[in-house]
Amino acid sequence: MGCTGNGIWALEMASEQLNCKVIGLDLRPPAEQQGKPKNLNYQEADITETWPLESGSVDYIFQRNMGQSIQKDQWPHVLNEMLRVLRPGGTIELVEADLWHHNPGPVQRAFDEFYQQQCTELGLDFAFTEVIEKELDAIGFTELDQRTLDVPIGEWPQDSGKKRKKVYTSFLIDN
Questions:
Q1: Around Cβ 91, how many Cβ atoms within 10 Å?
Q2: Residues contacting residue 61 through CB under 8 Å, at least 6 positions apart
Q3: Structural domains in the chain?
Q4: Alpha carbons within 13 A on the beta-carbon side of 139
Q5: What is the mean pLDDT of residues 147-167?
Q6: Mean pLDDT over residues 119-138, rounded?
Q7: pTM
Q8: C-alpha dist (Å) from residue 119 to 47, 51, 95
Q9: 35-74, pLDDT tens digit by residue?
């Protein structure tokens, strides 16, 4: 299960936060990056398994757009691993997009229905952004701060009820 992708976010954070150690986890960590700071390391890991990090050793965890990759039955383990490696007082930031479109037209609605069926067949939770807060609460996370961002798709009509959008939900969790 990948996490770091091309490593750009980790590279930017390590470059900006020179006093912090940045670790990127991925099945296939990125190839050697030119100008890679000394405080950046990539580790080969599958986030759906036990992470190669000590318990209580991480101050900040950032994860974005993994809802399309993490299967429904894997979320509890991934979230438990986040809680395990997070130090007391640490923060987790999850940024995930709804997998469906809000106020879609007929063609987009048909595509969303097709995509929902594909998610079911792949074991993904099409509506995980609507239930992840309950998952976080059940695992024992505290101080959840949820923010929702509307991202326009195409031109936005004057009537706000007819706006087509993609919704990103961000959880900032202080443990």
A1: 17
A2: 82, 85, 86, 90, 91, 92, 93
A3: 47-98+125-151+170-174 (3.40.50.150)
A4: 21
A5: 64
A6: 90
A7: 0.83
A8: 20, 25, 19
A9: 789 999 999 999 999 999 999 999 999 998 898 899 999 9
Write phi, then psi, for 98 (nearest 5 degrees): -60, 140
Instruction: Name the pairing type of β-strands 144-152 and 165-174.
Output: antiparallel
Q: What angle do CA 109, 163, 144 make, to 5 degrees?
A: 90
CA distance 63 to 3: 7
Q: Which two tokens stand for residue 16?
A: 């900006």
Neighbours of 131 (CB within 10 A): 12
**Residue 61 in contact with residue 23, Cβ under 8 Å?**
no
More confident: 36 or 112: 112
Q: Among 79, 96, 91, 93, which Cα is nearest to 130's?
A: 96
Distance CA 74, CA 109 (A): 28
**What pLDDT is attached to residue 2?**
45
